[in-house]
Amino acid sequence: MSRFWSKAAQRCEPYVPGEQLNQPEIIKLNTNENPYPPSPNVVRAIEKEAANKLNLYPSPTVDQLKKRIADLNNLKSEQVFVGNGSDEVLAFSFMAFFDQDKPIRFPDISYSFYSVYARLFNIPHESVALKEDFTIPKEAFFQSSGGVIFPNPNAPTSIYLGLDEIKEIAEQNPDQVVIIDEAYIDFASVSAVSLIQDYENVLIIQTMSKSKSLAGLRVGYALGDADLISGLIRIKDSFNSYTLDRLAIAGAEAAIQAIDYYADITEKIITTREWTIAEMNKRGFTVLPSQTNFIFATHSTLPAELLYQKLKDRGILIRYFNKPRIENYVRITIGTDGEMEQLFLLLDQIAKEASFTS
Ligand SMILES: *Cc1c(COP(=O)(O)O)cnc(C)c1O
User: What CATH number did the domain enclosing 327 receive?
Assistant: First the structure.
């Protein structure tokens, strides 16, 4: 704490991202990155842009990328906002739609950045307890005073909430913004994007970090009513005219067009996920029903923290959250088949050792 810090700098409690160890031999199953590379067309587009135009500012309005995202979702460009990763879009949304005198609601077990932003921007919040089975209790989100935000599928639980429930939550908050953070939606059954035609209070936020294999490029976007989008643009233009650089714009445009490539790797990940869940079950794990590129699992005898530590010692990183209700769960990103085979090899070793020592 420095006496020079503003109240905001004193108050905030920064988000702690999953470890990024720079050892090539480490298998990273801890930050839900895609194990496959982005489309080769994305890399080519970035290289071409880098070779030509870096002396020029990028487009402040990012029109072409917005148009492409709009077309893909049957929307108009005015219904699309793009930002530097969906984390930035989320931060702008907190500033654009939530106020300091009205509490917002999000689940008690959820993406931990929400409470970080709430604190930074001094927005009070009510945390809604997930049900015993970790599903979202829709009624608890009705009639909020300041707005609602949750991921769908939820993170780190991986559980998907159906469109009908989301619709009800939107209907029961007619004067508040309901934000659906769809970071993992491409691994799930269906997006809530269709709701924005009928519900002017629904904002959908998506990212290219997970299903598009572009966590390193930092591109996220919001889809919603044109009035919501102009609110976001006002905040962004009061902060930084150029949140997306030229390379990010070029890469994102190419990614939007590489539909077959991404359908293919997404299907591969879903197949590996289903096989992984079956293998985990065989080994005595309970795995929550996942519609994401990760699983959330607990074991009847092996403590989660021990698993995390022992896997880390042997070169596999997974995520462990030392938080109430989930302190005996681990979150494991779905990697390639080979990476998951290595995980099972180590899990079997660890289980064997534990049975000798207990
Ligand atoms: C990964 C993730 C994000 C952030 O994605 P970026 O676009 O990389 O900033 C947002 N919300 C949830 C729930 C996530 O898991």
Answer: 3.90.1150.10
188-223 residue pLDDT tens: 999 999 999 999 999 999 999 999 999 999 999 999
**Minimum-distance ligand 1 atom for the alpha carbon of 111:** 13
Distance (Å, whole) CA 313 – CA 258: 38
Note down the domain range covering 135.
Answer: 40-257
pLDDT tens-digit profile of 73-123?
999 999 999 999 999 999 999 999 999 999 999 999 999 999 999 999 999
Whether this model's pTM surpasses 0.85: yes
Q: Write down the pLDDT at residue 358.
A: 59
Domain closes at, from 257, 280, 310 = 257
Is the minimum distance from the CB of 354 to ligand 1 under 6 angstroms? no
Q: Is 215 in the pocket of ligand 1 (CB under 6 A)?
A: yes
Residue 13 lies in a domain: no
User: Does the residue 9 lie in any domain?
Assistant: no
Q: Which neighbouring-strand residues pair with 179?
A: 149, 203
CA atoms within 13 A on the CB side of 106: 25
CA atoms within 13 A on the CB side of 204: 27
